Sequence to fold (1027 residues):
Amino acid sequence: MSLKALDYDSLNENVKNCQYAVRGELYLRASELQKEGKKIIFTNVGNPHALGQKPLTFPRQVVALCQAPFLLDDPNVGMIFPADAIARAKHYLSLTSGGLGAYSDSRGLPGVRKEVAEFIERRDGYPSDPELIFLTDGASKGVMQILNCVIRGQKDGILVPVPQYPLYSATISLLGGTLVPYYLEESENWGLDVNNLRQSVAQARSQGITVRAMVIINPGNPTGQCLSEANLREILRFCCNERLVLLGDEVYQQNIYQDERPFISSKKVLMDMGAPISKEVQLISFHTVSKGYWGECGQRGGYFEMTNIPPRTVEEIYKVASIALSPNVSAQIFMGLMVSPPKPGDISYDQFVRESKGILESLRRRARMMTDGFNSCKNVVCNFTEGAMYSFPQIKLPPKAIQAAKQAGKVPDVFYCLKLLEATGISTVPGSGFGQKEGVFHLRTTILPAEEEMPEIMDSFKKFNDEFMSQYGVGYSRM
Amino acid sequence: MRRFLISQAKKGLVDHTTRRQHHQTRSFLSLLPPSFSANSPRAAPLVSLSRFMSSTSDMAASSDSTSSLPVTLDSINPKVLKCEYAVRGEIVNIAQKLQEDLKSNKDAYPFDEIIYCNIGNPQSLGQLPIRFFREVLALCDHSSLLDETETHGLFSTDSIDRAWKILDQIPGRATGAYSHSQGIKGLRDVIAAGIEARDSFPADPNDIFLTDGASPAVHMMMQLLLSSEKDGILCPIPQYPLYSASIALHGGSLVPYYLDEATGWGLEISDLKKQLEEARAKGITVRALVVINPGNPTGQVLAEENQRDIVNFCKQEGLVLLADEVYQENVYVPDKKFHSFKKVARSLGYGEKDMSLVSFQSVSKGYYGECGKRGGYMEVTGFTSDVREQIYKMASVNLCSNISGQILASLVMSPPKPGDDSYDSYMVERDGILSSMAKRAKTLEDALNNLEGVTCNRAEGAMYLFPRINLPHKAIEAAEAEKTAPDAFYCKRLLNATGVVVVPGSGFGQVPGTWHFRCTILPQEDKILAIVDRLTAFHKSFMDEFRD
Fold:
């Protein structure tokens, strides 16, 4: 008997240690149930088109024309494509050599990076340099590239909010670094307390960890809060004092559902603070075509912008990007379109505004319906989803339920979510997949199910929850 | 050793769970409530609050003493510094600057354009995409076209049928949604059927992982296999630098084996064995063998006999066979044929339980050359289910590969068939591209062999020629004076004199003391003739300058 080439025991430990809950046990069970013919409502991934959101028409027209450039020579092309889509397709094809079929510059097409820089300038009121913008296959790839540069080994720590989006824990684990958690305050609407940060850093250092970077997710995933300008200033000052790179995950910047706290970018706040701090804090901001009212998850398009990163480091990041050759070109064009949508007066402008506003306003209503729905349930409390795409209600599990979970060999919130899935077909992610304080349990749902289905979903959730709570201890509450 | 620092700041508790406990029983996130002891029978030692408090004063000192910003060249991951990727290295940077300067300074140069022969990027050099593939992709991207009657005048009927078929395989017809992390199931079914048709052995759609080009798939395998410098991967020399770069990034050791230039870049099992034993003697656990067939940069197509020996070698030595088969459609000589390693292994009677084999395929190569799409897949066979789960998990962290790349991967594995509306035009496009590549390869090969001191093996497949240049001593000395590798010196001179961009052999590895460069066969035919003229003139003057 010859040696077996790959034993589980001999795999890279970092790979085995990595966890990714969004597609974990619950998702697998949901997929099984779906195969058995049960209707499943997937609210586990922020994947709007999978739940029926229609793509915006204009960008799809432009990209279809770039896919099939021979159509541009056909005299009948105007019968099925508007003139501004045709013009825009020609524009993007002129920015490439070889259209969608050629590798681009490893950082992305220079012309698209220029459009991204112009967008950032319009948004923030400060200049942006296309040379410091790299396009990526989705924001996740960008996060991985940057963390790969920052993490040298186990002694390097990255400050990550808890609850957090598990991309961060999974990537840090894969790269063999150390995750240093800081807790968001649920009772303060998931606010970020800088004293808490200081404690986390101090504690990590006492363990011999060199804390190198801090991640913020704004608007928050899974927590849905929007950071205030004052809070962002504190964070930037903290990063400056502690010499941390700030990684600003700003992929939900279009998804804002209240008017008190609009999105404000970390870069703008940093620049507003002026010198010397504006020249000192190293900042990397991430964006994507997967979220917002675009929701083009399947395209895998994103970018990151680097601020105050020394040129030789930028070169190294470029080198690593070049090993992957280039990000996919159609997603680069989606990114170009996202940062420079149709303008007033363009043929497609009205339709574009109608579609995007429709999506955003409906999301705003759904965010409200979901929060209110959860708050009407026994032993459930939920902060309002100010932004992003998720609700993250706290489920106050009675001792009997925790006992039952233990007997079933499950973490209590996993136990709850599995029961919810079996009873209602609603596929959520347990809070333990994102991190939460001891003895406190949550689940994450997206706010993405179709608006007309929302009342029924919330009703069936309430029915399940109230029965669950009666079964495991009537009216019990920790409060 | 802890993987994560798990803390609950309020209570000042730190969980000292050991690495072993950690990876076997619990994840970071379930660890977060440190005293959720139902899951942890072992009592975790706690760091007291007082120790925590006393360390805060050290913290201020240590942060003040940190003289540099967190992300500087001195403080980034040394593995990042170490890796090299010559295909887009220094010479390409010089070429890009020349190209910029040419726009305003045309008269300063003895050439009027830069010709990129450094990278296998056919469509950037004028190769047209296969129309049928693009029709299907356009229809999938903008599926409301399928409801318009005018569409029938603009698109072939089989592209419309195929687009419907594909959309029906995507839940909700949502091409803008993340898919299953392995790729859309219906597309994997099509790919598996394509592999079966190619090999006459069964293929399982669950073995297929669709990826953003073949490169991320290679990275995933390296990440899985390499834990430290003590883990080695046998790689051909010369090799495509993706492998050396990826091994460096993941902190493993490259164990080289030399291809034999004198026998048409043949692979000698005896050399493999020797290298393996040497590596083992140094304490390296060799985990896998990389074979690139057809070869990059060397262009050879392995004989079936040779492939059998390789398969047997991997089986005997317990190595994973990583088969880079992205050039499977690019074979230019009648006496050679592409055989997949999976087919060879199955023909020898080796099944799922006998050996671990990974085959990589891409939409970037072949006659399709769709590099910008970032589509590809790996077929993973002979892995136990627990290992497969780990691969799936890695794929899931990146959510999924891009959907049009996935669709295209299914199309290249199931192109139009006889009788389909597009079949005739598809065949004309396909054969036109492949026969032109063969012709270009031959033209370049002959021209190179006519140069003084240059020998070039024939390009049996892939997209490259890898000629050997016997550089005169004087040239080597001149290169040393410039602190440049002699072949890089030659390539820079070539670039400055002709505008032709090639990659020095040192970027791929070569037998010490020999010098090569890699040149793609991808410029269009008229350009190839221009390259031949310029290269011949350049080489003559180079030799006149440096001849011993």
Q: What stands out?
A: The longest helix of chain B spans residues 423-449. The radius of gyration of chain B is 27 Å.
